[in-house]
Specification:
Chain lengths: 177, 112, 155
């Protein structure tokens, strides 16, 4: 079977998982439904010939689920049966459906599936292994051609995690006294 | 074309959740779903039909490969997304400790 | 009292066999990042998942009894510092930041690609320890909440 049919199947699965994650009342079930979306994304990456991304997405999804479950599922006093504002939901549905219809016209202008405009990629694919000596071309891009990007990226990671430490630590010290 | 539209629909589902839900946990999950759909869209654009993964092996000759540049950018985006999720989770815990609730309308009421 | 923390004896025994396999797999993914799928991020997170596995099975005090938590902070900052230092060495040798100043070697061998494996190791150390620390702080923070709430009930 061609790749497109499998991708339609996986994407339908992911959409069902996303809607379930937003509508389920139980916190643990909602987090696991988001896990469905992330693991479906990992399988979709495998079908789209990106094994690097499939591995990274799989591993990060597992860690993300562990973090969310440990953070949120132990609060027994928390009730999740919050009703959304009906007027707000109606307005959001109308606006988002208009955006979706406009999106149909916008996506027609893109190159169709399977025929990308890979102008820069040609140089990476033909000269990359000789210039960097790395058999994995994705690694040669993130750590040689665009290593400055990766430096900015680990700075963002460092900053966000430093923010998490700061937020969590202040409370811990206050209550220790 | 339909694949792009389904990805866009997934993004809109996430946007719907982030705008209408009152629970902070649901908002965090919705932001995660939006990130997933954007990552998938970038990789869908990079796919070339009949091509193989951009990793050289000894047995393969010169074959057509998919575009490696969006893959490299999405690889960094996934990592940043996990950092954002951790930061949002710690912020939500802090809000819960201060206001004893995850309801954002209650948080706004108690601010002044 | 401390022995009863964590999960049951079955989980603890299985953990003793599996945690080293997960750790070794993470090291393999990092070191072979320039030849096979994977790299610093994936391998670092697999290593941090092995520590998460240990923490979930043996309770949260198990790790802190043997190592200081500041050691992990040092490893994380050292990974980021090593990345920048390798970049500055690139200026010293070839004149541009993060240049590949070691010879690239033969394709398909482990000792190839010049500076890329070193950067992979730096990123693996940084990302892995950072994400484990986030998990650790979230886990230990919950105990503070519960303690304060139970104290509030007693008052």
């Amino acid at each position: 079977m061609p790749v497109e049919i499998w991708l339609h199947f996986i994407l339908g699965f992911m959409i069902i998982g996303a809607i379930a994650a937003l509508e389920i009342k139980d916190v643990l079930s909602a987090i696991i439904a988001v896990g469905i979306v992330g693991l479906g994304l990992s399988v979709a990456f495998l079908f789209l010939q990106a094994p690097d991304l499939a591995l990274v997405q799989f591993v990060f999804e597992i860690l993300c689920m562990i973090i969310l479950i440990r953070a949120f599922t132990h609060r027994k006093e928390h009730k999740i049966d919050l009703k959304s504002n009906v007027v707000l939901v109606a307005i959001a549905v109308v606006i988002l459906s208009v955006v979706f219809v406009l999106g149909i016209f916008a996506f027609k202008e893109l190159p169709s599936f399977g025929k990308p405009i890979a102008r820069i990629a040609e140089r990476y694919l033909t000269k990359g292994p000789q210039e960097t000596g790395s058999a994995n071309i994705v690694t040669s891009i993130i750590l040689d051609y665009r290593a400055y990007d990766t430096l900015g990226e680990i700075t963002v990671l460092f900053t966000s995690i430093l923010g998490a430490f700061t937020i969590l630590r202040v409370i811990g010290r206050k209550q220790r006294r | 074309m339909t694949l792009y539209l389904m990805t866009f629909f997934l993004f809109l589902v996430g946007l719907y959740g982030a705008t209408t839900k009152r629970d902070i946990i649901k908002i965090i999950l919705a932001i995660g779903i939006m990130g997933y759909s954007v990552n998938l869209f970038l990789i869908l654009i990079a796919y070339r039909s009949g091509a193989i993964y951009p990793i050289l092996t000894k047995s393969l000759g010169k074959e057509l490969m998919v575009d490696p540049l969006p893959q490299a950018l999405v690889l960094t985006a996934i990592v940043i997304e996990l950092g954002i999720t951790a930061l949002l989770a710690s912020l939500a815990i802090r809000i819960f400790e201060k206001y004893k609730t995850f309801d954002i309308t209650q948080v706004r009421r108690l601010k002044g | 009292m401390n022995e009863e923390k964590g999960m049951t004896i079955i989980v603890k025994t299985i953990t003793r066999f599996t945690v080293w396999l997960i750790f070794l797999y993470g090291l393999y993914i990092i070191i072979h990042g320039h030849l096979t799928p994977g790299g610093g991020f994936a391998g670092g997170v697999i290593i941090s998942l092995s520590f998460v596995h240990l923490t979930l099975a043996y309770g949260k005090d198990f790790f802190l009894k043997r190592h200081k938590i500041s050691t992990l902070h040092n490893i994380e900052a050292g990974g980021a510092l090593a990345f920048v230092i390798i970049g500055i060495l690139g200026i010293a040798w070839t004149g541009s930041f993060l240049a590949n100043f070691i010879s690239t070697g033969k394709l398909f061998t482990l000792k190839s690609a010049g500076v890329i494996p070193l950067l992979n190791i730096a990123i693996g150390a940084k990302a892995g320890t950072a994400l484990y620390l986030v998990f650790y702080y979230l886990v230990t923070h919950r105990s503070f909440i519960q303690k304060s709430e139970s104290e509030g009930e007693i008052k």
